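Here is one such tokenized protein:
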Amino acid sequence: MAEPEENGAREQALRRLKAQRAFRGLLVTAIGVIALMIAIWALSGGGYFWPIWVVFGLGIALITTAWQAYGPREREITEAEIEREMDKQK
């Protein structure tokens, strides 16, 4: 039987892999939507580049999703960190 710590690490790795897969799916979708919006803009005569708002919105979604998928990993709080924090409060 797996240790509780191993189960926690496995669950964390599984969440991370799912987040990475979701990011890749969102990236492919975003590229397609942006390309479509730019094509519509170009075919309608150009002018004010309104697709920038679509790019901006999808960019925010991509950044937050990428941070969840590839950003800093969660780690256990060590006993040394707890001791240091307790020493600060004295």
